[in-house]
Amino acid sequence: MSKRIDVKDLNVYYSKFLAVEDVNINIDPKSVTAFIGPSGCGKSTFLRTLNRMHEVIPGARVEGEVLLDGDNLYGPGVDPVTVRSQIGMVFQRPNPFPTMSIRDNVLAGVKLNNHKISKGEADALVERSLRGANLWNEVKDRLAKPGSGLSGGQQQRLCIARAIAVEPQVILMDEPCSALDPISTLAIEDLINDLKDQYTVVIVTHNMQQAARVSDKTAFFNIAGTGKPGKLIEYGETHTIFSNPSVKATEDYVSGRFG
Amino acid sequence: MTTTSLTKSRGAGRAGDKVFSGATLAAGCLILAVLFGVALFLVVQAFPALVASPDKIQGGQGFFAYIWPIVVGTLIAAVIALAIATPVAIGVALFISHFAPRGLASGLGYVIDLLAAIPSVVYGAWGAAFLAKEISPLYNWLADNMGWVPLFQGPASATGKTILTAGIVLAVMVLPIITSLTREIFLQTPKLHEEAALALGATRWEMIRMAVLPFGRAGIVSAVMLGLGRALGETMAVALVLSSGALTASLIQSGNQTIAAEIALNFPEASGLKVSTLIAAGLVLFVITLGVNMIARWIITRHKEFSGAN
Ligand SMILES: Nc1ncnc2c1ncn2[C@@H]1O[C@H](COP(=O)(O)OP(=O)(O)O)[C@@H](O)[C@H]1O
Ligand SMILES: [Mg+2]
Fold first, then answer.
1. CA-proximal residue: ligand 1, atom 24 (nearest)
2. A119 within a domain of the structure (yes/no)
3. Which of A119, A150, B179, B180 is in the most buried spot, having the most CB atoms within 10 Å?
């Protein structure tokens, strides 16, 4: 499990508006890659093209290639549904299904592919996924309760458990901690550290300390001005980006001089 | 005197609050009073029929023998209507909310809303003059090929004016109500949850089953109950479409009657105990409707914990 991602000459449009221009990036398997940059520079837009979630938005489209271990996600005959079952996503606001129990939330994605999972297997998978999301001890006595009754941080870890239950190759996270308190944020950061033993993790964050803490590599995105497309400015080892960036804009941003 | 700024009351705001809470209280009481008044009227007026000796009641065997066949007839017509209308309405609503391109969706939504504005007598006339005739070959076919099922036992009505036709007309009438309401509910599904399902690798249909339908559950039940309310109480269309008669299991023979149509057809010439009998029938319809609504409430609250409202 865990595959690499190579993006070649990617442009993303919302109808006529070019939101992200000419991104080339290679993301290593079993690593954490952080996307940073000022808001509106297209981090979320770009992230969503990595599992074709941008297609949910009417008018959104891409040009270029995204290769998952060499297979183009945008190749002819590729089904976005299959892409998304291999590249999971965690959103900015925790979104467990309110109508499902904690257990059913974890199993939601699994049941799509494998309807005949036995109860024993399901129980084992629920425990494994919740342990993987550092949530098991907190919820093991109330698996039948609704997921919406958990705290925000717990809900977000439930969403991570739901994402890893389908055993994806890659996990994308779009500012997963921005709605959480500092303690819950630390819990998620610890979890991200554990996840990279098994998965390729890509995380968008507006919090530079967080990028420095959790990621192996960092990509800095920027825009020249409103209405202009976002671009990948610099990409490299996280400690290089933060201590010795080669582009002036990156240095200004990571030192807090703008953005 | 630092406390004065806290204790000093803002006169106008207070008065506004009082007026508003008084007005809402009065409105709430008025509704209860009207409901109670209607119930009281029905009980008082129906009382003679309920205590009269059996041979005085129409049919000569007492009120219960008179009422239960038309209660069953009412329920049959309503069940047929909902069995047809609910899946179609939910399908159309989902098509409008999640599948159709935007232009088509709003056009279709508009047409559906227009359907709800057509008076019931028009539906009744359409059912009697057009649908009944067109559908009677189907009834003949059913009698020939499925006649061993009691519901489709022959001989089929030659005019096509059967309880099944009435049920179909009712279905067409309640369809726009259920469609409009459920469409609104489906449109309110949080994007967040739809995206959660899609990001797990759900197809659009799976997303609907995972996020849209469960989220709209309480609303769907309410919409169906409103439809049921109209189907139970609909008078004109049934009176025109159904050639009524004694209770029969077969849906494709003439026969059966609904409470509302029974009252409407007989009330103009009724007098004395007959009026009481018909009002008692109205009381029974009132109780059925009340019961149905209570069951709906119960279904909705039973799942409150999982409704997403917390
Ligand atoms: N659904 C959308 N439709 C049209 N434009 C959008 C949409 N979402 C984002 N954009 C535009 O794309 C650009 C990048 O936005 P986004 O990816 O959300 O930035 P970030 O996540 O870095 O803050 C912005 O100019 C934004 O206005
Ligand atoms: Mg964003």
1. A40
2. no
3. B179
With a 6 A CB cut-off, is A39 part of the ligand 1 pocket? yes
Peptide bond into B155 cis (omega under 30): yes
Helix (H, G, I), strand (E, B) or coil at B186: helix
Read off the pLDDT band of B82 (50, 70, 90): very high
Nearest Cα of chain A lies from the Cα of B209 at a distance, in angstroms, of 11
Confidence of residue B205 (pLDDT cuts 50, 70, 90): very high
Counted domains in chain A: 1
Is residue A139 situated within a structural domain?
no
- Please tell me which of the candidates A58, A89, A93 has its beta carbon nearest to residue B199: A89
Q: What is the CATH number of the domain that holds B147?
A: 1.10.3720.10
Domain membership of residue B214 as a residue range: 52-306
If you write DSSP's letter for every residue of B243-293 in order, what string do you get?
Answer: ---S--S-SSSS----HHHHHHHHGGG--THHHHHHHHHHHHHHHHHHHHH
Interchain contact A95–B (C-beta under 8 A): yes
Q: What is the mean pLDDT of chain B?
A: 89
Answer yes or no: is the C-beta of A48 below 6 A from any ligand 1 atom.
no
- Of ligand 1's atoms, which has the minimum distance to the CA of residue A174? 21
Would you list the DSSP string of B188-256? TS-HHHHHHHHHTT--HHHHIIIIIHHHTHHHHHHHHHHHHHHHHH--HHHHHH----S--S-SSSS--
Q: Of the bound ligands, which one is closest to the alpha carbon of residue A14?
A: 1
Residue B108 lies in a domain: yes
Shortest-distance atom of ligand 1 to CA A226: 25
Q: Give the atom of ligand 1 at the shortest distance from the alpha carbon of A39.
A: 23
Radius of gyration of chain B (CA): 25
- Does any ligand 1 atom lie closer than 6 A to the CB of residue A40? yes
Residue A245: which domain range?
Answer: 5-96+172-254
pLDDT digits (tens, 9 = 90+) for B156-186: 888 989 999 999 999 999 999 999 999 999 9
Q: A100 CA to chain B: closest CA distance, Å?
A: 6
Residue A59 inside a domain? The answer is yes
Please answer whether residues B260 and B285 qualify as being in contact, where contact means their C-beta atoms are separated by less than 8 angstroms.
Answer: yes
Q: Model pTM?
A: 0.85
* Residue A18 at interface with chain B, using a CB cutoff of 8 Å: no
Question: Is the complex ipTM more than 0.95?
Answer: no
Decide if pLDDT at A114 tops 60: yes
